[in-house]
Write a structure and sequence with these properties.
By secondary structure, this protein is α/β, with parallel strands linked by helices. It contains six helices and seven strands. The chain has one domain: Maf protein, CATH 3.90.950.10.
Length: 186
């Protein structure tokens, strides 16, 4: 059985490589706009499901296992996806400053016969951030492809006061849960 990772995220690629020696990468091109009034958990699940379905349907991979994942940051029920530009990234980080937010990561494992769904959740509290700290972080460019405009595993790690839940769901790929689910497929 061939495994296909429906993501271009280097973090997901790196983490999947810890549990699977060979896999292909085939990113899904989907519209990631939330529906009006869509709840964050519903949104992140829908994104992972659409990514898995899109990659699967590109050529109906009969003997393939497609793994798709999506991560979103939520503050006060507001979905904070990937920032479109520097100004939006700065706005997001200022909102997260000194606050506790939730990070949801949904994963879908799909074969011809079945689908397995995973939802991982973590709560992250940021220290209050100064404008200078935010500016310095934004200069790294690390915000560009990350939900909530930060990558916990990189320079933004200094913003984190406390974490509750699955660290790897914050990174974007709950590797332990994915490993357990993979055992049922292989």
């Amino acid at each position: 059985m061939k495994i296909v990772l429906a993501s271009q995220s280097p973090r997901r690629k790196e983490l999947l490589a810890h549990i699977v020696s060979e896999f292909e990468i085939e990113p899904a091109d989907i519209d990631e706009t939330p529906f009006p009034d869509e709840q964050p958990v519903d949104y992140v699940r829908r994104m992972a499901e659409e990514k898995a379905r899109t990659v699967w349907e590109q050529d109906e991979k009969e003997d393939h296992l497609v793994i798709a994942s999506d991560t979103t940051v939520v503050l006060n029920q507001e979905i904070m996806g990937k920032p479109e530009d520097l100004a939006e990234a700065e706005f997001m980080l200022k909102k997260l400053s000194g606050e506790t937010h939730t990070v949801y990561t949904a994963v879908v494992l799909k074969t011809k016969e079945r689908e397995e769904r995973i939802l991982a959740e973590a709560h992250v509290t940021f220290y209050p951030l100064t404008d200078e700290e935010i500016k310095r972080y934004l200069e790294t460019g690390d915000y560009a492809d990350k939900a909530g405009a930060y990558g916990i595993q990189n320079a933004a790690s200094v913003f984190v006061k406390e974490i509750s839940g699955d660290y790897y769901s914050i990174v974007g790929f709950p590797i332990g849960a994915v490993n357990q689910a993979l055992k049922t497929f292989i």
